Structure formats: structure tokens, C-alpha cells
């Protein structure tokens, strides 16, 4: 009896190896296709934060700048001061007017009491006039108190304070500069407001849900920042449509045969990050939405 040769076994082994390699290649191709075309993942992400544009509430010359560029500040910390001389004079004048109006009101009140106590010895018209003068004095005093409060507010607002904890950035304000009401003069980045905004292709939005866990990595770093989906934008600009001069829609007549998927902003709230990782508004980030098996197509 002859033993079976090894050639058929070797051929079968090569066949199995070929099938295994082919299966692995198909599996790898499938996973790559799922990762790049289906799973919610994007390299187009940005680190963002709330930026407070600090503007004075009164105009004047800057007399003191209490901070420097890239300085961390606490809420309520002095940022800069505007020349208070003019506002101090206005406050003192308003105080003087209030004192004068108080004296006028007191005199009018005494006149009313005196005319009333005299009874029929004083004409009714005189009593009525004294009452009218009292009302006018009371109105003038009320107006003077409002002006005093306004002058006090302006004097207080000549000192500008930080409204939140954060960091001063791109500071160019100098002593002697003239600042104007409502015109921003420095930026304050709210240190507690950092978040990540990822721009996902519209075809992947079906796999993104509120509160889904997310992993964020910054360019040049391997550290993973954990977060979750906080919100999804409900609208983006339509570049092919505008409003004409007669308020009718103006639609671009040129149709692009190559249709690129629109990108929709998805806001990622940061839950946990490495203490060594420093977030900078404007950084580039890669965002991946982690899905459970039930969420996968």
C-alpha cells in the first residue's frame, strides 16, 4: 500500500493560505471603506472658545493698563483705567445739583405747610401754587438723582474689569490711547469655554447622535481628548443661492457635475483631557465619533 504524496497537501495549504490572505484583504478593505466613508470621522476639526471683546462703556484717554499680553486673569480683575477727571467733575456737579434740589424741595414743603396752617387768611390760589411748586421741586429732585446715578455709573465704568476668568490675547492697548464707547480694544478668551467643532460630511450625519462619545486628537499630539456630541448645526450657507436686488432668489445657473458632500458643524463638549494638553483656540483637530455595535450599519 502506497502512502499519499505530500504534493496534494502542499497545494491545499497554498490554497488555504491564498484564501486567508484574500479574506484578510477583503476584511481590511471593508474596514477602511467603513472608516472613511461611513463612520463619523473627520480631520477637519477646530478647537474653539468664547472670546470676549472687551470694550469700554465710556470714552477717554487710557491712564493705566493693568495687564500684559497672554496674561491669565480672574473675573473682576482690573484690566485698564480711563482718565477719571472729567467723570469725577460730572459726578461732583450732579451731587451739587441734588443738594440744591433738596433745599428747594424743603423750602416748597415749608411753604405748603405755612399756607395750609393760615387757613382762610391765604387765598386758595396761593395754596394751590405752593403745592404746584412742591410738585415741581420733587420732580426736579428725582431728575437730579437720576443724573447723579448716571454720573456715578460713568465714573465707575472708567475702570474696566474682566467679566470672566480667562487669558488676555493680542493686546495692543497702550497708555495714552484714546478709547471710544463700544469699540473693542482687547480680547479675553474664556478659559472655561473651550470646545471642539468638527465639520462632518452630510452623508455621515445619520450616524451622529446627541451625547455620542467622541475622541479628539490635536495635530502633532497623540493624546486623546474625551468628549461627547453636544449639538449639531441645523443649517449651513447655500452658495448657489442669493437674494437679488428685487428680493427674489438668485440661483447660480452653473451646475457642477462633481458634487462634493457638504460639511456640517458638530459641536463636541470636552469631558476629559490630559493635564499636559494645552488647548489653543484655532488648533486643528481630528474628531471621531465612537459608535456602539447597534449603531453600525
From TrEMBL:
Domain p-hydroxybenzoic acid efflux pump subunit AaeA-like beta-barrel residue range list: 193-289
GO cellular component: membrane
Keywords on record: Coiled coil, Membrane, Transmembrane, Transmembrane helix
Residue ranges of coiled coil: 127-154
SUPFAM superfamilies xrefs: HlyD-like secretion proteins (SSF111369)
Multidrug resistance protein MdtA-like barrel-sandwich hybrid domain location: 50-188
Matches recorded under InterPro entries: AaeA-lik-b-barrel (IPR058634), MdtA-like_BSH (IPR058625), MFP_Efflux_Pump (IPR050393), RND_pump_MFP (IPR006143)
Record has Nucleotidyltransferase as a keyword: no
Matches recorded under Pfam families: Beta-barrel_AAEA, BSH_RND
Transmembrane segments: 12-33
Single GO MF annotation: transmembrane transporter activity
Cleavable signal peptide: none
Family in the record: Belongs to the membrane fusion protein (MFP) (TC 8.A.1) family.
Protein name listed in UniProt: Putative hemolysin D, HlyD family
Organism, as annotated: Advenella mimigardefordensis (strain DSM 17166 / LMG 22922 / DPN7)
Phylogenetic classification of the source organism: Bacteria, Pseudomonadati, Pseudomonadota, Betaproteobacteria, Burkholderiales
Amino acid at each position: 500500500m502506497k502512502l499519499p504524496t505530500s504534493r496534494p497537501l502542499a497545494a491545499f495549504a497554498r490554497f488555504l493560505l491564498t484564501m486567508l490572505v484574500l479574506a484578510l484583504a477583503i476584511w481590511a478593505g471593508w474596514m477602511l471603506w467603513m472608516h472613511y466613508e461611513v463612520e463619523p470621522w473627520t480631520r477637519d476639526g477646530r478647537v474653539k472658545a468664547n472670546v470676549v471683546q472687551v470694550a469700554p462703556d465710556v470714552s477717554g484717554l487710557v491712564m493705566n493698563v493693568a495687564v500684559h499680553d497672554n496674561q491669565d486673569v480672574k473675573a473682576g480683575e482690573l484690566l485698564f483705567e480711563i482718565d477719571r477727571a472729567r467723570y469725577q467733575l460730572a459726578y461732583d456737579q450732579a451731587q451739587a445739583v441734588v443738594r440744591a434740589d433738596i433745599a428747594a424741595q424743603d423750602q416748597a414743603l415749608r411753604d405748603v405747610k405755612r399756607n395750609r396752617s393760615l387757613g382762610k387768611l391765604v387765598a386758595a390760589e396761593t395754596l394751590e401754587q405752593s403745592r404746584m411748586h412742591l410738585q415741581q421741586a420733587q420732580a426736579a429732585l428725582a431728575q437730579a438723582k437720576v443724573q447723579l446715578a448716571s454720573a456715578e455709573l460713568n465714573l465707575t465704568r472708567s475702570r474696566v474689569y474682566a467679566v470672566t476668568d480667562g487669558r488676555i490675547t493680542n493686546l495692543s492697548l497702550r497708555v495714552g490711547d484714546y478709547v471710544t464707547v463700544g469699540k473693542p480694544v482687547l480680547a479675553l478668551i474664556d478659559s472655561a469655554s473651550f470646545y471642539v467643532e468638527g465639520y462632518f460630511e452630510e452623508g455621515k450625519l445619520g450616524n451622529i447622535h446627541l451625547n455620542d462619545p467622541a475622541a479628539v486628537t490635536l495635530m502633532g499630539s497623540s493624546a486623546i481628548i474625551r468628549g461627547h456630541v453636544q449639538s449639531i448645526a441645523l443649517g449651513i450657507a447655500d452658495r448657489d443661492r442669493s437674494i437679488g436686488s428685487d428680493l427674489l432668489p438668485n440661483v447660480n445657473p452653473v451646475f457642477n457635475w462633481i458634487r462634493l458632500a457638504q460639511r456640517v458643524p458638530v459641536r463636541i463638549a470636552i469631558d476629559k483631557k490630559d493635564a499636559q494638553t494645552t488647548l489653543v483656540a484655532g488648533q486643528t483637530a481630528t474628531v471621531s465619533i465612537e459608535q456602539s455595535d447597534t449603531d453600525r450599519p
